[in-house]
Amino acid sequence: MSQKVVIDTNVLVSALISTKGNAAIILGMISDGLLESIYCQGILEEYSEVLSRPHFGFPYSRVAEALEIFTLHGTPIEPQQSNTYLVDESDRIFFDAALSSAATLITGNLKHYPEKPFIQNPAGFLSTLSTSNE
User: Fold this and answer.
1) What is residue 134's predicted lDDT score, i.e. its pLDDT?
2) Can you tell me whether residue 5 is helix, strand or coil?
């Protein structure tokens, strides 16, 4: 069974901007079935809205392809809402999805979340993953 992950939108954006960075490696691992993406309808809507913003300039086909990775290689859930304080309330859906499914939340904005062991940035996650596979 592969490890469960919730991907914050900023990580997905990074993966599409730089195809060689840590975020892209993680997206590739989801696409290859090495990681199980946990998502809900609200997360997919957030991905779609942000990736479709004109300033990114992502072609529609690339956005659709990215979203399909999650629906094909992930598990939809209905997260239970927590009462944990978050700096940015718009991050709640990602936090609650990870908390509800015992997944690792991967984000580029650690400062937006409480310090919890299940919340990591892409580099930290990959480092933990490689350490646990040794």
Assistant:
1) 52
2) strand
